[in-house]
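User: I've been trying to design a sequence by hand for this structure and keep getting stuck. Would you show me what you'd pick, starting by listing the structure so we're on the same page?

Assistant: Good idea, let's start from the same input. This is the structure you sent:
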């Protein structure tokens, strides 16, 4: 277990050169020994969307993935974008803190389905690579996992309400009979990314 941001930072610096480092999207109950059973999960406040490079081989960078995501769900804002180190990207959508893991996981799955992201990464026990660690899949080419954009600390930052998001995604799924027309949209505003703010806020509610 880690309980503070400082412990996360220490773990990254200690192991990043020889271990793939991941963190759970949910916090876990302190009184339990860690395993990945959903019944042991405590709270969560983030939607995680995973786009693999192998599924979008013609995409050149995070901008292409961001435009694709906005074409699929134009109204949904991703608060943080992370380059996974393997050519793909991870989008983080901040929500209000919830202990209803099943509900937020179902919302996550719907968003993944509608945006053609990796459905296998929309499970309650999903883990994510930590920014500033390294992706060590290719033993001859260790790639830094890095934040591309992050607006968690922007004055305009606002978390999505879980119930409102669930209602909107249900409506989207029930009425999505044809492809949404492509729209030109702006990329998220680039904010200060010198620290691991997305991780800090992802852990915040469950670690204090």
């Amino acid at each position: 277990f880690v309980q503070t941001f400082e412990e996360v930072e220490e773990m990254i610096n200690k192991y990043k050169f020889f271990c793939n480092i991941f963190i759970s999207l949910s916090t876990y109950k302190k009184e339990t020994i860690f395993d990945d059973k959903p019944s042991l999960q405590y709270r969560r406040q983030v939607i995680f969307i995973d786009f693999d490079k192998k599924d979008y081989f013609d995409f050149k960078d995070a901008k292409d993935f961001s435009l694709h995501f906005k074409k699929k769900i134009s109204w949904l804002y991703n608060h943080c974008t992370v380059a996974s180190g393997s050519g793909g990207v991870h989008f983080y959508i901040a929500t209000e803190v919830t202990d209803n893991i099943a509900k937020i996981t179902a919302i996550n799955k719907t968003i993944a389905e509608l945006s053609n992201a990796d459905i296998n990464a929309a499970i309650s026990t999903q883990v994510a690579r930590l920014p500033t660690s390294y992706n060590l899949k290719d033993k001859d080419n260790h790639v830094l996992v890095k934040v591309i954009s992050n607006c968690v600390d922007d004055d305009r930052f606002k978390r999505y309400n879980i119930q409102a998001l669930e209602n909107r995604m249900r409506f989207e799924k029930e009425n999505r009979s044809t492809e949404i027309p492509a729209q030109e949209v702006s990329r998220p505003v680039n904010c200060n990314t010198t620290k691991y703010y997305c991780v800090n806020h992802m852990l915040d509610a469950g670690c204090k």
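That's my pick for every position. To get oriented when you compare it with your attempt: The radius of gyration is 17 Å. Strands lie at 22-24, 26-28, 41-51, 80-83, 89-98, 127-129, 134-135, 143-144, 146-150.
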